[in-house]
Here is the input.
Amino acid sequence: MSYLMTKNEIRWHYNVLGHGPCLFFIHGWAGNMRVFSQQARHFSSDYKVVLVDLPGHGKTDWKPGTFDEVAIQIKEIADHIGVDKFSIVGSSMGGFVGLKIAELFPSSVEKIIMVGSLPKFFKTQQCPIGLTAQEMEKLRTQLETKYPAILDIFFRSLFTRQERESEKFKWIHQFRKEEKAPSQEALISFLDMLAHDDLMDFLKAVNAPILFLAGRKDYICSENSLKFIKNTIPQVQIAFMENCGHFPFLINSVEFNNVVEKFLLK
Here is the structure.
């Protein structure tokens, strides 16, 4: 485990495992780098795997900022460890951060895997993907009044009933109980940014190959949302994992790792 004080004066927590082509794993809202532990073990045999805790999550300090600033600081970590080019696997909000890195540093990003992730998370008539304004506002209110209890309720909602009854979910739930809750201020700030930031136009112009990979039963990154993106931007690839919700890499790591590996090797 390592730390880097960035130019923005945030002490970032990151971890580097293995050798080879560089592969960043970026967790989502209310997560931390440990959600990708199964992927880190698998991919570090052939890749230089870099795991990060986003600001206010895990062991990284919190300081208000923008997605641009988050992307710039992750690039600082890449520069610090001597990496010029890398691919990105991003879960949910982490995928959005990955797209932002590609927007700001297009020559550095080789491929992006968006896992349960979208180029915008707020639904509009023109672009009906993500959550409604009412759903996002409800979550924000709950964060203000029911933190941290709301995090467990929200987390459970991201899994299907079948997943919640599995042995793997019991392991995940125990793992979460051992974790420090993310900063309440950070969660609200990121949620506010997700309610406004939009990378659909950039997605239409991006040169890096992109795979949108989602659980078939993910209600945030829904099947209809990904089909809308594919119809709007034919060059992106989409794939689904059956009987999975928002975190297919946690529930079915073997299939997930195989899908990601095939995409990286194309």
In short: Residues 148 and 181 are 7 Å apart (CA to CA).
